[in-house]
């Protein structure tokens, strides 16, 4: 340092303290940013350890686990009816929410006049997206299960999930529609297309990758939802394969049930079930990112 | 009773002042007339407002069929507005409002019984920024035909691409995306898309301003060709371009006023108005 | 007039068919849109109707049908007094001998966990957002942002499991033992931690958006004066984006209030009017899921109590969302 005569010029500006503070601040912010990552790593680590303990030490048979239903003894307990229940739920939710969500988004972005009513509808939508999921379960319990006397069937659960997912699908679709440049719409309208022809011929095809990505992410949210299903009356101990009009269980409700059992071996079953759920989720996220990156049109 | 009287009076008045045009319109019932200087589009006392701001003031102009009419003027003087008010694309802008008349074959396009969609099927438009759809070249050209319920044939697509002087460059890749073309090619694709359903009028809003000089000159050549079959109205910032390709020129000046409208030669050589001369020679502003 | 038919601009033929289809579809799409409005109305109506049934001996609609429409208004028998509901500090609706209905008990549980979660998520989320917007390299951002999305996408039941199988026994218990404290399997503290962790991505990403919206001219102005990155972050970026950052806090709090499964698993099912983070507590949401099982009997007070709690929850999150909406609109005005 003593040789560094060039810095004489600035020697009256003492930056050591500033630099130290700067470094400390940087480290602090970095740790904060990494905190979430660390927690995620711990969470995955925990699930893997619990699963490994269950499979390797306790001897949970993965084959039995994936092919049988809930049972009083942990050795014979399995996830199959719950997996099938979850698949049914996601499938029905997709059918019930996709058309509804995309239609609403299309109306709001392409047709709705910019007036008070529209603003109110949109404000209501953001509000709906913030309603706790358990409230949707309560709505389905009051209206479908007991109001329409549907009973505690899978369809009622799917309806609850759809109500929950529709605002998410709408918001994602609106974003995708908004990303379509107006030049495209004008090009179509100037060719003598009606609004609808423009939407169908140009706007929706351009927005579709975004809409599909948003929908998959919304369904990923739905498949992990537990509270609305419990409110609707899901069977916690799913023993037999459900269909839309039968009583039902699902993966998350099964996890909830096992996690609450006093016998600790069931906790390892829960971990294994979580692993299955997370693998399915990773698949869905992967699909969403693939669609986003692969089909997104350049404009 | 009174209304009928008014109508006869009005028609009478029109016949008195412009007897030639009136007869020509009647004679053009067969469709594409070929007589020179037949008026296909006419604006009368057209005012356009965006909210409280007036963008066009009392514009009256007659646009001849099968000719190239150039619209020139400084930025913000209302050229695009004028174009959009012809095919009612201004309907898309919430705050836009038009007073006065735009007559297409003597029919006011702002009449209650006119459907803007039907109007736009007869008046095509090409935009400043090329806006091909994210579809194949073929589907881009076929789009208008499909939309308008016309038959989509390979011949129709080929014809449109040839007219747009694009066919030779893309004939081997009709199924590749329109977005893969160069800017100049994209613009010609948009021209092909606009003319494929065979409109009568083609509106072009600075179609070459986003292009390099070579691509621009290709499109310029094309425009003169197009005038054989279509009536072309083109907005341009380029005086030389207007002088080269147009038969008639309309000069708008700030405030949305149409200051002078006449034969291109006359406007560029000996305009009636000092402001127009100043603008053309670059002294304006 | 004969010339008029030639221009072909009237609403006839093909165009008319296309336009008719356009209008038909527009009506259909509008119908779909109104369903979203209907959902909101339905949620409120169902909650209100059954909450009425909680306080009185019939739901609002039953009461209207039987008393008002038929024979004139009959007196209502109130089974839960409003005073008890709003002030009692015991909550045990299913208790056979002495049921008590004091929502402050559940509110306290919700409040305790929400405040605790906010103490974790707000500082960590804000600092993380500052890191992302001011310090992180493009590469770091590229990996960090998707990781946050994943963190936000983990189902809440998984966080609940994480709380009871890891956070409490492995992290908290040894740590507290140093101070001579002990905690049970279910405790508010572990719920605070996991709810805090799951709301961090929300605070981080929304705050970062707000920070990115701060124009670079502001930063450059400060750098030109010789400011360090630290002082630019704290004195320029943070104040300039404060309303957006604040909006993210409200959203995170609203999310924490409505959070259900993680809280149910972590904090337990014992309603306790307490501010002690080491105790087992029950939130409004946890009460709803744990009691939904034992309420086969429609009309029973336990069944109706679900809706009373639900209505309270709905109203609280509604207020939070409205405040967030208001703050967001104000912050949009600043730079757009
Ligand atoms: N969508 C709009 N909303 C409000 N005002 C507008 C809109 N479009 C144009 N204007 C206003 O109308 C006036 C004329 O605009 P116009 O786009 O027609 O000008 P122009 O002659 O085409 O200009 P340029 O040469 O720059 O394209 C301008 O003052 C402009 O601000
Ligand atoms: Mg313009």
In short:
Chain A is mainly alpha-helical and 299 residues long.
Helix content of chain B: 25-40%
Number of domains of chain C: 2
Strand order of the largest sheet of chain B: 6-7-8-3-9-10
Sequence of strands across the biggest β-sheet of chain C = 1-2
Structural class designation of chain B:
alpha/beta
**CATH superfamily label of chain B:** P-loop containing nucleotide triphosphate hydrolases
Number of domains of chain B: 1
Separation of the first and last Cα atoms of chain B: 53 Å
- The backbone outline of chain B, from C-alpha atoms, is globular
Helix count of chain B? 12
Q: Largest chain interface and its two residue counts?
A: A-C, 85 and 90 residues
By oligomeric state, this entry counts as: heterotrimer
The pLDDT mean of chain C sits at 88
Model description:
The complex is a heterotrimer of chains A (299), B (285) and C (336). Chain A is an all-alpha fold and 299 residues long. Chain A has 11 helices and no strands. Chain A is globular, with a radius of gyration of 26 Å. Residues 1-6 of chain A have low confidence and may be disordered. With 285 residues, chain B is an alpha/beta fold. Chain B has 12 helices and 10 strands. In chain B, the strands form 2 sheets. Chain B has a 6-stranded mixed beta sheet, sandwiched between helices. Chain B has a 4-stranded antiparallel beta sheet with strand order 2-1-4-5. In chain B, β7 (201-205), α9 (213-226) and β8 form a beta-alpha-beta unit. The longest helix of chain B has 16 residues, at 2-17. Chain C is an all-alpha fold and 336 residues long. Chain C has 2 domains: 1-79, no CATH class; 91-330, MetI-like (MetI-like fold), CATH 1.10.3720. In chain C, 74% of the residues lie in helices and 1% in strands. Chain C has helices at residues 13-55, 60-71, 82-87, 103-135, 138-153, 156-178, 188-212, 216-224, 229-240, 242-258, 261-267, 284-292, 301-335; strands at 91-92, 100-101. Chain C has a two-stranded antiparallel sheet with strand order 1-2. Mean pLDDT of chain C is 88; it is low at 1-5. Chains in contact: A-B, A-C, B-C. Residues 79-80, 205 of chain B line the site of magnesium ion (MG).
